[in-house]
Every structure is written in structure tokens, then in C-alpha cells.
TrEMBL record:
Keywords for the protein's UniProt record, in alphabetical order: Membrane, Transmembrane, Transmembrane helix
Record field: compositional bias (Polar residues): 754-770
InterPro entries with a match to the protein in the record: DUF6049, Ig-like_fold, TAT_signal
Protein name, entry field: DUF6049 family protein
PROSITE patterns the UniProt entry points to: TAT
Pfam families: DUF6049
Region (Disordered): 723-779
Residue spans crossing the bilayer: 689-709
Organism from which the protein derives: Streptomyces toxytricini (Actinomyces toxytricini)
């Protein structure tokens, strides 16, 4: 049906109105239709992160006006499709307001449209025409700093992104991004923070208690691995080489100095198969010590107690084991002596460093008992309430004349990760610098002092990253270096938290790695054994020094996380000490027979040591004093001194009061009555000889003599007659018929065993039976 024509000045005809409505619907629906057929907008990180972006260089790390910023890195296509028409671009966000914002930005992953800033001028981007799957490509962005449009001082987030297309998404999209930070302080700040960075020279325990028998007592090492840390490129060599050019405070375990110094005098070490061989890295040790001595001149040196004892383990597990805490003060005294002797500088020994700076009241008490007035804590242990609105200075008075020097946790843990990767190191350095600048920009009128306590034993790569961060601060635009003593002496902020956290707040993870109570009990056993051993030595320092040092090493913080190694080390120390004590011993003695009323019984003492022993008492004791006595009682004792490598025999007079076996015990004692070594037992058989028996024996001997005389005289008369031609005497006159074949061999004794000349015996036949009851037996 045809529509009527529109009349001029009238309303549009119905047909026209329907056409208009269709046109409006069509026009309005076009965007919706476009949205349905158009590819979806770029998703965020979870969907578009197919490219891994790594930053290996940000230089300069903290630029100033007029600098050119260079950022290098790699992009890796982890997706399945080739990326085309790609480019790497730089994105700079607005200055971050506080340290929390820095941490949040560092933890973000992926690209977020509308949240992440746009790219800086694409004229400075790097084009990549094609990036196939699983292929990496290096890049270098170079851009003048003034193109970044940085405004006020602050920490600016930097994002380096790769944008491109794929076959499934043929439009430009962000496929990967990596974020870091750019600290911006172009001019020196009016108020600069004081920054104290500790540079720890600490290693694991290497020395055993075993020494040679030579004059210098050549030490024996667990292995030869320390040489690897000392030689060029090794961990400790890098710490010294890097540290000598940096504004740091050296924190040294004196045991490390003692150990390396021992290497310079000649050393031996155990091989994996248990042999002890001569060490050949004396020159390496000499070179390292010479470099360290030069590096510390004019620098502040803090000496930890000898062998870096585990303060927290002592406080939680060892304080109730007698004698344990008594080892701390000598360890502090030895620390000062070792540093002065080896490095020829005077160290401070007024600082204690619990593991990870975690403290509670018992840790503080133990730390200060060794003479330290300052405890190195960390801000994640002694935390602020936030009432100040800024981070306070490190020094906090905690009562009883002690000061907690609270290190900043973010700065202290900045380089604990794997720094072998240049990408990880670069991010760590930039984040460290960002936090240090953010600290200085906090709103407060007072100058503050901050302390950094890094991990105790940084790797070579971690040390390198630490050094790069400190070099970036050397321009001094927002920090200035200070030593640890200055930080401890700084005026505390008013209103700062000085409440030491309770025992329940100590981290469970740290508590699980502490030395157990059994470890301290084993150490006590070793100390007791050592005390008894020293009491008999003429040169006790030959064992007191090596074993005393080893006792400190058994408490070392370096055993954290290595319970099996720690237990094995303690067992070896005790076994070696017991082996030395057993070189002084009683020689095993066989049973003895005592004939008569008294006799001398010898007992020998052997000394297998190279030095003389003295102060020993040898005591023998009869198990049955009614039968066998020594002197007037059942026991006797004598002082014993034995030369090195010799034995000494001690004689005791024993008296028997009755026949029969008696057990005798021989035991060595120290002069204060403590048993020394194993006792020896042997049996003395007492044999009785009565007067009647003695008479019988004497009579028999006399008859034998008389018979002999008579036989001699008879033979002489026969010979004389034969010479004169007289006939032989008749038998029976006492002569012996020469050559009579009937005479039994053996001098004419009849076959019945009697002597013709023998008289009647003067004793009757003795009974071989047992004596009757009440029978008197002559003694």
C-alpha cells in the first residue's frame, strides 16, 4: 500500500516516520555491531604476558639533569606465535608518594591499560620487525633525561614494554612489561640522611681442634674450601676488593682472621676419604690478609665475639646449661686481641648481632652479658607503631644502658636473592636506591641516621650488587656515609618505640633453626673433659687454646640451617679430646702371685703425649682387706709424673694375711680427687708358707747335702784302694761296686726310691685331705 505524499507544513507521513526510525536504529546499532565483530581490547597481564622483558642495565642509576638514560635488556617471546611490527618502549609514571607505593609497584605484574602510563616519545623506542616463538632479542633504549618530564624530586616508576601484533590478534597490544624505579634528586637535598652500611667478613667454621705435635702446633682444617673463598674471584676476595673503595663499616668475625692467619703459617686439612694432607694455599692466605689489612686502614672496624656465637640460641636453648654463658666474655676478649694482632687496628667490641636482627628480652640480656652495650636489631623485629608518620633514626634506648641499633629491613634484605642474574641485580639496585631516597623525602625537619645490616655471608654476586648501590649513592645527593658508632650515638627521635618485643613475637622460622639444648650439653661435656685433662699437663695451653677456640666455634651462628654438620663437628671435637686423654693410661696388668707374707706389686702408667704429665695420683685398692692389705689399710696411693712418650712403673708393697685370690683395682686420679681414665683390675693370688713346711724343706735339703758328701767320700776310698792293688771291699760296707750291671742308673738308688743311708724321716706322712673343723693351721 502506497504511502500518501507529505503535505507542506504538515507532520511527516507515517511512512517517513518509520524510515527515520529504521535509520536511527541502524546508526545507533553500528557501534554495538562493531564491538561484536571487532577483536577484543587488550587484556591485562594474565592474558597478554607472553613476552618476558628483562632489564640488565639502568645507567645512570640515579641520573641528574643533562644525563642521558640508557636502559638495556632482553625480550623473550614465550608465546606460540611470531610477533610482528613490535617495538620496545619506555613508560614513566608519576612520582610515588611513599615506601609502601614502591613495594606495591615492585610486586605488580603485567600491563594494565588505564593504570600504566603511556609511552614516552616513540622516537626513542626500539623497533623489532619480527620476534619468532621462543626467540630472544636484546635492546638498548637511549633517551635524554629531560625528555622524561620529571618534575619534583621523588621516586618515579619506569616501565619497559614490548608491543606488537600476532596472527590471532592483528593489532598493536602490550605483550610484556617490566617495572623498575628511577630515583630523581638532581640537586643535593638540604637535609641528607646519614647512612651506615655494614660490610660483614664472616665465614663458616673451618678449623678442627686437632693440631700437630710440632712446636707451632700446625692446625688441621675440615677441608680446603676456604682457599676458594680467598683466591681471586672468591667470595671473601670480592668482599675485600669491593669494600676497600666504599664508605662502609667493616664487621669481622675474628675467628676468620685467626683461621686465615693459621693458613699463612702452614696447615693441613682432611680429604673426603679421611686422610690428612698438607695444605698448599699459604700464598693465597697471605695475599688476602695483606689486602684486608690495607683496606681497613682508616675505616671503622667492629669485631664480633670470637666465632660469631649464636646469641639467640644461647638465650633460648643454652642459658640454662651450666657454663654456657660464661664463654661469651672470653670470646669478646679474644676478638679484640685477634684483630689487633692480625690487622694492626683497634676494633670496637661493643656490638652484638643476633640472627636477622630479631630480638626479645632474653636475647638482649644475653647479648649485653658479654659486654656489648649495643644490639643490632632490625625494623621488622622492633617495629614502629606508625604514630611518628616517618621512619625514625636507628638508635633506640631499650633500658639498662643498652641501645638497640635498628637497621632498616627493606634496605637490609634488598640483595638477599639470586644476584648472579644481571636482571635481578639491576632491579635490586634500583629498588634499594628508591627506598633510600623515599626515606630522605619523608616529612620531618630533623636529620636522621639509618643502618643497613645485609646478610651475614653475601655471595660474590650479592657483594657486587651491594657495591653498585653504594657507588650510586656516593654523589651524596640524599645520603651521606656514617660509621656504626656514630649511628649508635645519634640522638633518638622523640616518641620512638623502645619496647623490646616479647618472646612470643620471635619468628618461628628462626626458632626452628636454633642450636638445640643437646648441643650445649655436649659442649659442657667437652669443657668438663678439658678441665680434667688440663689439670695433669705441664703445658696446658697446648690444648686449652685450640679446644677453647673450638668450643666457641661449636656455638657459631654459621651452623644455622646445618644441624647435621653441627652435630658431626661437636662429636668430632669430643672424640678427639677423649682420644688425647686416653693417651695417659694404666698399662693392662696380668694377675700376680704373692708368695709369703709380703711382696712388691708393680703398676705401670703410660704417657703417649708429647708433653710431660704431672699431678696424677695412682691408687690401688684391695677388694678384701682382711686377706690383702697395702700398708696399714686396704688401699695405697702414690704421686705420678711421667715424661712425654714414656712409661713409669709405680711399686706398691702388699701384705697377705691369708692365702687365696684377691681382686685389686688400680685407678688414676687428678690431684683434686677426680677419677682419670679407666680403672684396671687384676687378681693377686696369696700363697701361704708355714714354719712346719719350712722345716721339712730345710731337712730335706740337709739330707741331700749329706748324701752327696758320703757318696763323694766313698768313691774317693775305692779309687785309692784300686791304686794300691787292694781287693774290692765287700758289699754292705758303704762302698759302691763299680760297674755293677744290676745298679740302677742314676747313682745306685734302689728301685723302690729309698736311700740306703737315709734314716727314718723326721716327719710323718702329711694328710692331703681338707683340714677338719677347728683345725689349727700354722701361719
Amino acid at each position: 500500500m502506497a504511502e500518501p505524499a507529505d503535505n507542506q507544513g504538515a507532520s511527516p507521513a507515517p511512512a517517513r516516520r518509520r524510515w527515520l526510525r529504521r535509520a536511527v536504529v541502524l546508526l545507533c546499532g553500528t557501534p554495538l555491531l562493531g564491538a561484536l565483530v571487532q577483536p577484543p581490547a587488550p587484556a591485562d597481564a594474565a592474558e597478554t604476558g607472553s613476552v618476558d622483558v628483562q632489564l640488565t642495565t639502568v645507567a645512570p642509576a640515579a641520573p641528574v639533569k643533562g644525563d642521558t638514560l640508557t636502559i638495556s635488556g632482553t625480550v623473550v617471546n614465550n608465546g606460540r606465535e611470531t610477533i610482528t611490527a613490535a617495538h620496545v618502549g619506555l613508560r614513566v609514571g608519576s612520582a610515588l608518594s611513599d615506601r609502601t607505593s614502591i613495594d606495591e609497584a615492585a610486586d605488580r605484574n603485567g600491563f594494565r591499560a588505564g593504570t600504566d602510563p603511556g609511552e614516552v616519545d616513540q622516537a626513542y623506542s626500539v623497533k623489532i620487525a619480527s620476534l619468532p616463538s621462543k626467540v630472544s632479542q636484546t635492546f638498548t633504549l637511549t633517551i635524554p633525561v629531560n625528555k622524561l618530564e620529571l618534575e619534583k624530586e621523588g621516586v618515579y616508576p619506569l616501565g619497559v614494554s614490548l608491543s606488537g601484533e600476532t596472527d590471532s590478534r592483528p593489532y598493536e597490544q602490550v605483550l610484556g612489561i617490566k617495572r623498575t624505579f628511577l630515583p630523581w634528586q638532581p640537586e643535593p637535598a638540604a637535609k641528607r640522611s646519614q647512612l651506615t652500611y655494614l660490610w660483614p667478613l664472616i665465614s663458616t667454621t673451618r678449623l678442627t681442634a686437632e693440631t700437630g705435635s710440632d712446636e707451632v702446633q700446625t692446625p688441621v682444617f675440615l677441608d680446603d674450601s676456604l682457599a676458594d673463598e680467598l683466591r681471586t674471584g672468591g667470595r671473601l676476595e670480592r668482599m675485600v676488593s669491593l669494600g676497600k673503595e666504599l664508605p662502609i663499616t667493616w664487621v669481622i668475625d675474628p675467628d676468620l682472621l685467626y683461621t686465615v692467619d693459621a693458613m699463612t703459617k702452614g696447615y693441613r686439612y682432611r680429604t673426603p676419604d679421611g686422610r690428612v694432607v698438607q695444605g698448599r694455599n699459604k700464598a693465597v692466605a697471605e695475599q688476602w690478609l695483606a689486602s684486608l689489612e690495607a683496606a681497613v686502614q682508616g675505616k671503622k672496624v667492629v669485631a664480633l665475639p670470637f666465632a660469631d656465637p649464636d646469641i639467640a640460641s644461647l638465650a633460648h636453648q643454652g642459658k640454662d646449661v651450666s657454663g654456657t654463658l660464661g664463654q661469651l666474655r672470653p670470646a669478646t676478649d679474644k676478638a679484640k686481641q685477634a684483630v689487633e694482632t692480625v690487622l694492626h687496628v683497634t676494633p670496637s667490641t661493643d656490638f652484638s648481632w643476633p640472627v636477622d636482627g630479631a630480638i626479645d628480652p632474653s636475647i638482649v640480656n644475653v647479648a649485653t652479658s658479654a659486654g656489648a652495650h649495643h644490639v643490632l636489631a632490625r625494623s621488622d623485629s622492633l617495629q614502629e607503631t606508625g604514630a611518628l608518620g616517618y621512619t625514625p633514626s636507628a638508635a633506640r634506648p631499650i633500658g639498662a644502658g643498652a641501645t638497640a641499633v635498628v637497621a632498616d629491613a627493606d634496605l637490609s634484605t634488598a640483595f638477599e636473592g639470586d644476584m648472579l642474574s644481571a636482571a635481578n641485580s639491576t632491579l635490586a639496585v634500583q629498588r634499594f636506591l628508591a627506598h633510600s631516597l623515599a626515606l630522605n623525602l619523608q616529612k620531618t625537619d630533623s636529620q636522621r641516621s639509618f643502618v643497613v645490616t645485609p646478610q651475614r655471608m653475601p655471595s660474590a654476586s650479592q657483594a657486587q650488587s651491594m657495591a653498585e648501590a653504594l657507588r650510586a649513592l656516593q654523589a651524596g645527593r640524599w645520603t651521606q656515609p656514617a660509621d656504626l658508632e656514630a649511628a649508635a650515638a645519634a640522638k633518638p627521635d622523640a616518641g620512638v618505640n623502645t619496647q623490646v618485643p616479647g618472646a612470643g613475637q620471635y619468628p618461628d622460622a628462626l626458632r626452628k633453626t636454633e642450636l638445640p639444648v643437646a648441643a650445649f650439653e655436649k659442649i659442657r661435656t667437652t669443657l668438663n673433659t678439658l678441665d680434667h685433662f688440663k689439670a695433669i699437663l705441664t703445658a696446658p695451653d697446648r690444648v686449652e687454646i685450640p679446644f677453647g677456640n673450638t668450643t666457641n666455634r661449636e656455638m657459631s651462628t654459621s651452623w644455622r640451617g646445618r644441624p647435621q654438620d653441627a652435630g658431626h663437628y661437636r662429636n668430632q671435637v669430643q672424640q678427639y679430646l677423649v682420644g688425647l686423654t686416653e693417651k695417659v693410661k694404666l698399662v693392662p696388668k696380668s694377675d700376680a702371685t704373692l708368695s709369703g707374707h709380703s711382696a712388691t706389686i708393680p703398676v705401670s702408667v703410660q704417657n703417649g703425649l708429647v708433653q710431660d704429665v704431672q699431678g696424677l695420683v695412682l691408687r690401688v685398692k684391695s677388694a678384701n682387706p682382711t686377706r690383702l692389705v697395702f700398708g696399714k689399710s686396704g688401699q695405697a696411693e702414690q704421686q705420678v709424673t711421667v715424661q712425654g712418650g714414656h712409661s713409669q712403673t709405680v711399686k706398691f708393697t702388699a701384705n697377705a694375711t691369708a692365702s687365696g685370690p684377691v681382686e685389686v683395682t688400680a685407678q688414676l686420679f687428678t690431684e683434686n680427687g677426680v677419677p682419670y681414665g679407666k680403672e684396671r683390675r687384676f687378681t693377686v693370688e696369696a700363697t701361704e708358707i708355714t714354719p712346719t713346711v719350712m722345716l721339712v724343706i730345710a731337712g730335706g735339703v740337709l739330707l741331700l747335702v749329706l748324701a752327696g758328701v758320703k757318696m763323694y767320700a766313698s768313691r774317693k776310698r775305692v779309687a785309692a784302694r784300686a791304686a794300691a792293688g787292694d781287693p774290692a771291699e765287700p758289699a754292705g760296707d758303704g762302698g759302691e761296686p763299680a760297674g755293677d750291671p744290676a745298679e740302677p742308673a742314676g747313682g745306685g738308688q734302689p728301685a723302690d726310691g729309698t736311700q740306703p743311708s737315709d734314716g727314718t724321716p723326721d716327719t710323718g706322712a702329711q694328710s692331703t685331705g681338707r683340714s677338719g673343723a677347728g683345725e689349727t693351721v700354722d701361719r
